[in-house]
Amino acid sequence: MAEKFKPTERALSLEYAIRDVLVPARELERKGRKILYLNVGDPLKFDFDTPQHIKDALYEAVKAGKSWYGPSDGLPELREAIAEKEKRYNDVDITPDDVMVTTGVSEAINFLMAATLEPGDEVLVPGPTYPPYISYARFYGAKPVPYRTVEEDGWQPDIDDIRAKITERTKLIVLINPNNPCGALYDEKAVRAILDIAGEHGLPVASDEIYDRIIFEGRFRSTASLTKDVPVIGLNGFSKVYLMTGWRLGYLYFKDPEGALDELREAIMKLARIRLCPSTPVQVAAVAALRGPQNHVAEMVAKLRERRDLAYKRVCEIEGLSAAKPRGAFFIFPRVEGVGSIWPTDKDFVLDFLREENVLVVHGSGFCPTYGRGHFRAVFLPPPEVLGEALDRLEDFMKKRLRS
Questions:
Q1: What pTM did the predictor assign?
Q2: What pLDDT is stored for residue 2 in this prediction?
Q3: What are residue 99's phi and psi, to 5 degrees?
């Protein structure tokens, strides 16, 4: 009898809280329970749809036979359209040669971490943060170091904490703006301060901006538009703003005024060659997304603002919960009283809420064990009547637990 095969510890140790919580939810579904899913940031699971001209472009691309392998860095026309988009909406001056197309932003994060980090290195990530930044760093033997973001200040970065956590092992500073999981929109002053710190220490900055056009209040300023001499790697994609989640298309770009990232570009290009290329017909459709009608964006943001207002109002009215008001993206990140007493951990809170009320959210410690602990993340993507039902169940649940 063959011995049981042992996979690597680096793979076994990977976590992704947003999807890990699906396992107990699906067990309940198999028992006949109907679950309200507020865990995954996918607008197309609700009443949003990919704009028709993007669908038509995909169909026409496939019909025309544009299904061959493309260049590893992406179709030239798409890279040109991305450079145009970054200039038009984000005031970022880059050329098509600065752009690399990826299979979703997740692949861009993987490429960045693989090409940047050696075992023992450190990367500063916002606390809380999008989990792949933590998981990929650990996968490559590096240490993700969360820097504090201040809940009482709308989850703005704590500049002093960033400065204090830089060591000789730090290789990269990561921003996520607008932020997942908190919905924060970073002030321009904070972004400039982070760039200044990076410049003092000779570090590049990676700026994840996939929610760049989903803004409810304030003005979004791209990190790359504010830099002078600090190299910036921008990460973005089509899943959120263009409602193309399952199409799996993203990109990264280099804003590198002094050529400090030339070797990093080549390293990432080698990774891209190994995986061949992103989907060619989807890239053709992405050109249509960028250069075609944009009216769906304002309509989507208006719907989301209404739902954000509903979620924020209701959460703040529920005894035992509090939250900072999200200014971008489509997440709210409430604090839960009773974690540590009623519930041992925030994950226990999430699982208890799921079993009791058939609503799935994500435990905050899955986004950062330090700064996410005692919170949960929920999307406010569902239609108001569905979102209201989920919030009614949350209110009932909190009343029962706080008074028991």
A1: 0.95
A2: 67
A3: -105, 140
